[in-house]
């Protein structure tokens, strides 16, 4: 495939990936991303949620936030949006806990409305729920507007994980002060990039939060901490375990796409086969579209119907492979691929034609983060993967970041700032009260912590789980292993809070005796 500017998220979350040949950067390829919405479907999704689950009520408020927490320059402040629900809060006098979800790279309402686990357990804990939005996303825009905030490298320079974590720390400290709840324990939650933020915040601000549930948090997906082909190997195995013939059909389809595209009127024929609304500009456009869908399917291969990314059936990869393998004997390889991919892009059958992204570079905040500190190398091994083979080429990565933002990445900054190498020793020595939850079907699980590192740094791993499935709301269709995983999380969180309260009460008792 042609060289490409490859953008990965949220959740969310984009990582730039390039093939090893370093030829001209003529096209862009949307690659696996942390699940998230687009601006186009934001309102539709939020309105649908409000109609389906109106029991999730919250107030929307704004907090005046520093633009730069690490200097004393006279810079304009910005309004950070947050959502809050106090329906079940025990109150400050009872040391009612505060559950804080670390906002991801997108609109905070979308993350709040897809984190049903937190809402489900709030009554049991008597918790106050708060969902602060990540700076430069949703409605939390510095400089007054998205246009101004995203204007250039100077205005974007305050979009960093360090600033975002400081936002959360300052916000919750001020909130507790205003509620006279300084003594109330804070527990952090997050999924995907938000899970990374939750884990990092617990490490950076242990005096502010007593623990963190970091779901599907690939904190090790940096430098050479894990092999760069990990993501695509796991995604490929998700398909292979359902059907080896399905895996092979997808693996063979990339060459079939290129061969068809090279024919006279080949792009027109591909456009018709895959029902696009406009004629393809290149075969890369189609390959990127398919690549994105397969990656998302691996992430959201949930055991029951869900509409987190798209309306999908339970075990969607199984259904995709059933369509691919079940196509008629006269069906071409590309006809089979279309039948399968329609499960992801058109399971409802309501789409007449498919639209490709008219802005393939999608110059949003995550692209900036990926071009500065969130450098997550990826590659695809053609021997093990069903995806086209390519290697990570940092020189091309750096060049594209410079051409796009006039900025050079710092690929070693995350491991310097938060750690990553020899994570077991680091967390065992300096960390506590972090749950790393992962489902092994999730391609991001390969970049997370998958074994217990101490009594308090715990890994909860499920063989059949997918991307932060544990954070989704409970349903009657939940398999026993998922119920058990959530119960284990509840017990651990309960233990953190009980230990905190005992220690707090002991200090109060000691003070009273000293009086």
From TrEMBL:
GO cellular component, one term: plant-type vacuole
Domain of life: Eukaryota
Signal sequence, start to end: 1-22
GO annotation (BP), single: proteolysis
Keyword terms, alphabetized: Carboxypeptidase, Glycoprotein, Hydrolase, Protease, Signal
GO MF: carboxypeptidase activity; dipeptidyl-peptidase activity; serine-type exopeptidase activity
InterPro entries the UniProt entry points to: AB_hydrolase_fold, Peptidase_S28, Ser_carbopepase_S28_SKS
Statement: the UniProt record of this protein carries the keyword Glycoprotein: yes
UniProt KW Phosphoprotein keyword: no
Family the UniProt entry places it in: Belongs to the peptidase S28 family.
Record-linked PANTHER family: LYSOSOMAL PRO-X CARBOXYPEPTIDASE, PROTEASE S28 PRO-X CARBOXYPEPTIDASE-RELATED
Protein name: At5g65760
Lineage, uppermost ranks: Eukaryota, Viridiplantae, Streptophyta, Embryophyta, Tracheophyta
């Amino acid at each position: 495939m042609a060289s490409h500017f490859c953008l990965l998220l949220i959740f969310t979350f984009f990582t730039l990936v390039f093939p090893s040949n370093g030829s001209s950067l003529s096209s862009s390829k949307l690659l696996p991303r942390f699940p998230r919405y687009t601006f186009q479907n934001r309102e539709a999704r939020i309105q649908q949620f409000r109609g389906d689950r109106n029991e999730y009520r919250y107030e929307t408020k704004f907090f005046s936030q520093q633009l730069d927490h690490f200097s004393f320059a006279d810079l304009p402040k910005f309004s950070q949006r947050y959502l809050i629900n106090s329906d079940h809060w025990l109150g400050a006098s009872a040391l009612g806990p505060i559950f804080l979800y670390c906002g991801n790279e997108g609109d905070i309402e979308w993350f709040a409305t897809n984190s049903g686990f937190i809402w489900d357990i709030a009554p049991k804990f008597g918790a106050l729920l708060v969902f602060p939005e990540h700076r430069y996303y949703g409605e939390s825009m510095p400089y007054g507007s998205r246009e101004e905030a995203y204007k250039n490298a100077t205005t974007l320079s305050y979009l960093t994980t360090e600033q975002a974590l400081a936002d959360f720390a300052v916000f919750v400290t001020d909130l507790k002060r205003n509620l006279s709840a300084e003594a109330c324990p804070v527990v952090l939650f997050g999924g995907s990039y938000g899970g990374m933020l939750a884990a990092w915040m617990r490490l950076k601000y242990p005096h502010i939060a007593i623990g963190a549930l970091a779901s599907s948090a690939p904190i090790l997906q940096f430098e050479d901490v894990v092999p760069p082909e990990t993501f695509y190997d796991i995604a490929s195995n998700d398909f292979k375990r359902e059907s080896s013939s399905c895996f092979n059909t997808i693996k063979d389809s990339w060459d079939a796409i290129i061969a068809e595209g090279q024919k006279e009127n080949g792009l027109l024929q591909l456009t018709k086969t895959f029902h696009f609304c406009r004629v393809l500009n290149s075969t890369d456009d189609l390959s990127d579209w398919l690549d994105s869908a397969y990656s998302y399917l691996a992430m959201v291969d949930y055991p029951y119907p869900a509409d987190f990314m798209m309306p999908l059936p339970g075990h969607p990869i199984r259904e995709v492979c059933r369509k691919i393998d079940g196509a008629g004997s006269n069906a071409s390889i590309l006809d089979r691929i279309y039948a399968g991919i329609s499960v992801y892009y058109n399971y409802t059958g309501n789409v007449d034609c498919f639209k490709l992204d008219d802005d393939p570079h999608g110059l949003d905040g995550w692209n900036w983060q990926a071009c500065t500190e969130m450098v997550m190398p990826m590659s695809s091994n053609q021997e093990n993967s069903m995806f086209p083979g390519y290697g990570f080429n940092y020189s091309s990565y750096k060049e594209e970041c410079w051409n796009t933002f006039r900025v050079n990445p710092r690929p070693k900054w995350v491991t310097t700032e938060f750690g990553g190498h020899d994570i077991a020793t680091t967390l065992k020595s300096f960390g506590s009260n972090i749950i790393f939850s992962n489902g092994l079907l999730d391609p991001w699980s390969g970049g997370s912590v998958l074994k217990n590192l101490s009594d308090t740094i715990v890994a909860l791993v499920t063989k059949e789980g997918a991307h932060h499935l544990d954070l989704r709301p409970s349903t009657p269709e939940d398999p026993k292993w998922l119920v058990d995983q959530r119960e284990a999380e509840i017990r651990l969180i309960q233990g953190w809070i009980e230990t905190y309260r005992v220690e707090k009460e002991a200090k109060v008792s000691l003070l009273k005796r000293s009086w």
